[in-house]
Amino acid sequence: MSLAEKAATDVDDLAEQRRYWIDKLAGGPRPAGPRPDHRRPEHRSERSAAAAFEIDGETFDRLEKLTSGEPFLEYAALAAALTACLYRHTQASPIVIGCPAMKSETEPADPGTLVPIVNDVDGQMSFRQLLLGVRQTLLDAHARQHYPYSRLLDDLALPAAPNRCPLFDVSLAYGAVHHEMPEAGNDVALNLRREPGRMRGTAMFSPELYETATIERFSQHLVCLLSAGLENSRAALAELDMLAAEERRQLLVGWNDTAHEYPRELCVHELFEAQAARAPGSVALVDGDRRLTYQELNDRANQLAHRLQKLGVGANTPAGVCMNRSAELVV
After folding, report:
1. Tens digits of per-residue pLDDT, 202-215?
2. Mean pLDDT across the stretch 270-282?
3. pLDDT of residue 169
4. What is the C-alpha separation between 17 and 174, in angstroms, rounded?
5. What pairing do the DSSP bridges indicate for beta strands 170-174 and 283-287?
6. Where are the beta strands (DSSP E) in the chain?
7. 87 has pLDDT over 60
8. Which of 204, 159, 170, 161 is nearest to 92 (CA)?
């Protein structure tokens, strides 16, 4: 092949890669990650905190059996579990995760390359369907990983934001198949490495955005979804269990253990009025940035009651209420 022919082929390859990425990312899919605990800083915050997690025991054994220890297939299963986890957290589709360039002995890639992995997700699809789809997406995306990430952002007219990555919130790197993940400004960077009988994971994140407990819980959701998907690959994503036993007990038992002794001869509004008399200046209700004291809440409830009375609403008169969750609904 002459130099001119090679140059023409390279141009055609680059054009094909561009078409692939434009098609995959048309519409500018919004990043998807765990809900932040704190308001996003105006400028990018450093991922200076870390949470460790492991994939071991039966989950690791099932993963090894499914993939026969083949690193690419292992990564496909991990990426499928993360995609399912992000879908369950956000109910959004498509889901985009970031990853580094894949190692190759024949085609060395720029270690600074970023590859967005884009997958459409539906809660009724099975984990097996998602895994097969993610596997194909990985093959297609890494075959086009040489397309410059900066040029892709320009093609999509996505300016680099000062406080977040414009394409993905979460990245996933697996040392057996990837170069080191370059800095992209995304919120959470998951890194996994294989050890005898298990995988060790580290989630790097910014403490300005997340509490450690939130990222630990998110990492555990990832492991639980992987375990559930491997155990029953034909189950719908919406039905896979992503809660650890301790979190399930907290949700079902701990937070519902609200039994409390109170005077049975009094109605709820009388109990509230008594509390308002005891502590009128204490905060009774928080709605975003709004706060109402017991006295303020009681006064507003009385004003509404008087208004309803003037409209003819009395005892045993039905009154419809159609409101969003808000301070007004409590009033």
Report:
1. 999 999 999 999 99
2. 89
3. 93
4. 24
5. unpaired
6. 49-55, 95-100, 114-119, 170-174, 188-195, 198-205, 283-287, 290-293
7. yes
8. 170
305 by DSSP, 3-state: which?
A: helix
Taking a C-beta distance cutoff of 8 angstroms, is the pair 235, 228 a contact? yes
Residue whose structure tokens are 């999509």: 156
The SS3 of residue 216 is: helix
27-58: b (≥16 Cβ within 10 Å) or e: eebebbbbebeeeeeeebbebebebebebeee
Q: What pLDDT, in 10s, does the model give residues 166-225?
A: 889 999 999 888 877 878 888 999 999 999 999 999 999 999 999 999 999 999 999 999
> Residue 84 burial by CB count (10 A; 0-12/13-18/19+): exposed, middle or buried?
buried
Q: Token pair for residue 121?
A: 């997700």
Residue 97, pLDDT above cutoff 90: yes
**CA distances (Å), origin 291, targets 9, 48, 301, 302:** 65, 33, 15, 18
> What CA–CA distance (Å, rounded) separates 89 from 83?
10
Predicted pLDDT of residue 5: 46
Question: In angstroms, what CA-CA distances link 59 with 177, 233, 288?
Answer: 20, 13, 40
Distance of alpha carbon 59 from alpha carbon 41, whole angstroms: 37
**Mean pLDDT confidence for 239-252:** 77
* Cα angle value 297/303/306 (rounded, 5°): 140
Please tell me the predicted confidence (pLDDT) of residue 6.
47
